[in-house]
Specification:
It contains seven helices and 15 strands. The protein is α+β, with helices and mostly antiparallel strands and about 300 residues long. About 15% of the residues have low confidence.
């Protein structure tokens, strides 16, 4: 019995010695690291989180789905709304002009317009109409616009092609979100933020861009536009081209859309906000060209 006890103690003692001699492992195939998480690792994680882009707004479930008929510029579009073509001015952003009667084409205006075409042409968008259901002084619908579930305004801001502007209660729902995205574009110094002082609280200041390639291109474009549109081009069949703003100097406006060829009389409700593809001197000329009267 004594011998068995001694033998058992020797076996236990041997196991303890062998265990003490085993090297520490890193966990092998388990994938578990034996090293503790350092404080520097925690700091790195926090830094990474701070650099995550601002989460974009989502299209509202109760929005109005409508088809885009025409992109006017970087912040304006035409849609089929209540069976009529309506011009929509998107809320809370402003992009440089592309065909303003006084300001002409502004730097980064063509880029903002091209980006809008890329995002909106032929698409079905969701409109979140202004809370008061209002229109601006030009009769345009005011709305937030979502395309593919994403905010069109935020996509323009993130690309450095728009600034946050025209903030009027009660339509301020997304203003904080927009400002955060605008700030990221400012920090990246892209688009309208690439030249200090160009985009300001009161609008755009092309003069600060003198000497840059962008300014030279825009000036050349404006000079060419003035020469091209100094006088409407008349034709023998009672048609002539609209000016750079799609206006017909009080004559009949011809507009082409998914509803076909339509002409608008100066007395029509939406005459002022309609941008013409062609102008007519009289109804007969419009109808001979295949256009029908707006309803």
């Amino acid at each position: 019995m004594k011998n068995k006890l001694i033998k058992g103690m020797l076996i236990v003692f041997s196991i303890l010695i062998l265990s003490g001699c085993e090297p520490l492992t890193d966990g092998g195939d388990s994938g578990t690291s034996a090293q503790p998480i350092s404080s520097s690792s925690s700091v790195s994680t926090a830094t990474d989180e701070a650099q995550v882009p601002v989460k974009q707004s989502e299209a509202p479930a109760n929005g109005v789905a409508t088809k885009v008929i025409k992109v006017v510029d970087g912040d304006t579009l035409q849609v089929l709304y209540q069976k009529k073509i309506a011009t929509v001015r998107v809320l809370l952003i402003d992009t440089p002009e592309t065909h303003h009667p006084r300001l002409g084409v502004q730097p980064f205006g063509p880029e903002a317009s091209a980006h809008a075409h890329q995002l909106l042409d032929g698409k079905t968008v969701t409109l979140e109409l202004a809370k008061d259901g209002g229109r601006d002084k030009y009769g345009r619908l005011l709305a937030y616009v979502f395309v593919g579930g994403k905010s069109f305004e935020e996509l323009q801001l993130a690309s450095g092609l728009a600034r946050v502007a025209y903030i009027y209660p009660p339509n301020t729902k997304y203003v904080d979100q927009y400002r955060a995205i605008e700030q990221q574009a400012r920090e990246k110094k892209i688009g309208i933020w690439s030249v200090p002082g160009y985009a300001q609280a009161d609008g755009y200041h092309p003069a600060v861009m003198k000497g840059t390639e962008a300014y030279s291109e825009i000036k050349s474009s404006n000079d060419q536009t003035k020469n091209t549109y100094s006088k409407p081009k008349s034709s023998v069949n009672g048609q002539f081209s609209p000016d750079q703003n799609g206006d017909c100097a009080g004559s009949i406006k011809g507009n082409v859309s998914d509803r076909g060829k339509i002409y608008h009389m100066p007395s029509d409700r939406y005459y002022k906000v309609t941008k013409a593809e062609i102008c007519f001197k009289n109804r007969d000329a419009a109808e001979k060209a295949g256009f029908r009267a707006a309803k």
